[in-house]
Design a protein that fits this description.
Elements: E1 2-10, E2 13-22, E3 28-32, H1 39-46, E4 54-59, E5 62-63, H2 69-72, E6 76-79, H3 91-96, H4 100-103, H5 109-121, H6 137-151, E7 155-159, H7 167-182, E8 187-191, H8 195-201, E9 204-209, E10 212-218, H9 219-222, H10 225-232, E11 236-241, E12 244-249
Parallel strand pairs: 3-8, 3-9, 6-7, 7-8
Antiparallel strand pairs: 1-2, 1-4, 4-5, 9-10, 11-12
Helix pairs in contact: 5-6, 6-7
């Protein structure tokens, strides 16, 4: 997926200003930056949830705006920050929604098998008949990820998947993100506020400041004292744990 000169304006002010980069295939890419830097807006335009004012998102060599929704949903899945479903659904019913682009709601044997595998992969077997609103925050997030797995897309876009999770469940969620890439071969793009999660679980990082890309590269290239201090305007020190650069600021 290639993004070229992507621009979005609100009230005449550019919140995303001529952003260009390429999403590395089969890798985990984290979008980071201060609040209001434009990362979630970029994610929204990449996923076609937000219309861009200028620029191009080329998916498989074709303008993403020209893809039919049903066909795009077979290739790209998105989980936003707010996934509140008002319907009274069980975990299995929610996961089954991932098969809608293929089945149109009429599940066949293959669909049921993929739903079973997604539930098993996320270790939700004991909860599959429970209603979503009866689950903890961590369990609910796992159910949504299971829905994405059942959707069986090459690209997975996650907008702040650790939002509102405690450190235990947030860490487990990031381990799941890593497994989506390493075990299932997904290309994962996520928006994160916690830069140490980005550093430890990503392959590449794209850092935004004021609607523009400040830094793009591997974790090691972006996660330096100088880069982080420039992006966040606070002083950083970099430690190394398990070969990964982790930050502390003061």
């Amino acid at each position: 997926m290639i993004i070229e000169k992507l621009t979005k304006k609100y009230d005449g002010k550019a919140v995303v200003d001529s952003v260009s980069f390429e999403i590395p295939k089969g890798k985990v890419l984290s979008l980071i930056g201060p609040n209001g830097a434009g990362k979630s807006t970029v994610m929204g335009m990449i996923s076609r949830l937000i219309a861009q004012d200028a620029g191009l998102v080329a998916f498989d060599g074709k303008d993403i705006a020209k893809w039919k929704s049903k066909e795009l949903a077979k290739r790209l899945a998105i989980l936003t920050q707010t996934n509140n479903i008002q319907m009274k659904l069980t975990v299995r019913e929610l996961v089954a929604f991932g098969r809608f682009p293929y089945s149109g709601g009429r599940l066949n044997e293959e669909d049921e098998e993929l739903i079973d595998k997604a539930i098993e992969y996320m270790e939700l077997e004991e909860f599959e008949d429970r209603f979503i609103d009866e689950l903890s925050g961590g369990q609910r997030q796992r159910a949504y990820i299971a829905m994405v797995i059942a959707q069986d897309t090459e690209y997975v876009l996650l907008d702040e998947p650790t939002n509102n999770l405690d450190i235990y469940h947030a860490t487990n969620m990031m381990k799941i993100v890593r497994r989506l890439c390493d075990e299932l071969g997904k290309t994962v793009v996520l928006v994160l506020h916690e830069i140490n999660y980005a550093a430890f679980y990503s392959d590449y990082i794209c850092a935004f400041v004021d609607g523009r890309i400040a830094k793009f590269g591997t974790v090691e290239e972006v996660m330096t004292k100088e880069n982080l201090s420039e992006i966040y305007h606070v002083d950083f020190e970099i430690l190394e744990i398990e070969g990964k650069p982790l930050s502390i600021y003061y």
